[in-house]
Structure formats: C-alpha cells, structure tokens
Amino acid sequence: MQMTPCDTLTLDNRDTSCQPTCLLWSETINLVALVVENQSFAGLKHRRTVLFVDNRAFLIHDEAIGGDAGSVRVHFQFAPCKAEMRGLVARTCYDAGANLLAKTFALGKEVALEQEEGWISYTIDRPAR
C-alpha cells in the first residue's frame, strides 16, 4: 500500500479522500492549537488535533468519527532511525536531539501496535517512491 499525506487513518487499508478542512487555528503564549478534519469515507471522518505546548512538546489526538464498519488503522511514519516498540508505545531512539513517542490508548476497544514498512518523501505534497 502506497501511503499519501491523507492516509494517516485508513479503513480496511483503503485509500482515503484527501480534502481536509481546517476547523481551528489558535495561538497563545504557551499553546498553539490546530484542528483539521477530513471526510475520509462517506461514513467515516478523521479529525486530528495538534497541540504545541510550551514550545517544547507536540500532542496529537486522532479521532475516527462515524458509523462505517471495518478495520480502522492509524499510521505514523518515523524518520529512518532505530526505533523501539513496547505495548502500545513506539518511540525513536536518537542518542542526541529530540525523540518522538507515539502512544495509543485503547478506550475500550481492541487495539494493537504493529510495525509496517514505511516510506519517505523528500518533496512536499508528493508521494514517496
């Protein structure tokens, strides 16, 4: 499956429609907030909230909203590096500089964390090759 920028959330590994709408952009001294929605499928919407807290940490919250049934998956691409997966947590393991930690919360549903092949694109708005 070739990922595109809108394939962060997939349903039964199907490509999504990519027509995002910005719902919120807000900046204060200690917080930048962005909320974007994408009607990925007729019955499933993907909402992503990104918070940049105290100029030092990002918090990303993904929501799948709607009644479409199937396997809903959220995909995160790490830069090529050593990474560690444990339980519902994946993180990069750089010796110096910033690391990324992705943690999933089950919220009463069956959830699994799996490693899969990733792609990297060095050109904005173009799929990886």
Description of the structure:
With 129 residues, this protein is mostly beta strands. It has strands spanning 9-11, 21-27, 31-41, 44-53, 57-65, 72-74, 83-86, 89-92, 101-103. The protein has a four-stranded antiparallel β-sheet with strand order 2-3-4-5, with no helix packed on it. A three-stranded antiparallel β-sheet has the order 7-8-9, with no helix packed on it. A hairpin with a 2-residue loop joins strand 7 (83-86) and strand 8. The chain starts with 8 loop residues before the first strand and ends in a 26-residue tail after the last strand.
Oligomer: single chain
The secondary-structure class comes to: mainly beta
Tell me the count of domains: 2
Q: What is the number of E strands?
A: 9
Unreliable stretches, pLDDT < 50, 5 or more residues? 1-5
The global form is globular
| N-to-C SSE string, H for helix and E for strand | EEEEEEEEE
Strand order of the largest sheet: 2-3-4-5
Q: What's the story with the biggest beta sheet? A: 4 strands, antiparallel
Mean pLDDT: 83
N- and C-termini, Cα separation: 12 Å
**Proportion of residues in extended strands:** 35-45%
Kindly provide the radius of gyration, computed on alpha-carbon positions and rounded to a whole number of angstroms: 16 Å
Task: Provide the helix percentage.
Answer: under 10%
Q: How many helical stretches? A: 0
In short:
The strands form three sheets. A four-stranded antiparallel sheet has the order 2-3-4-5, with no helix packed on it. A three-stranded antiparallel sheet has the order 7-8-9, with no helix packed on it. It is an all-beta fold and about 130 residues long.
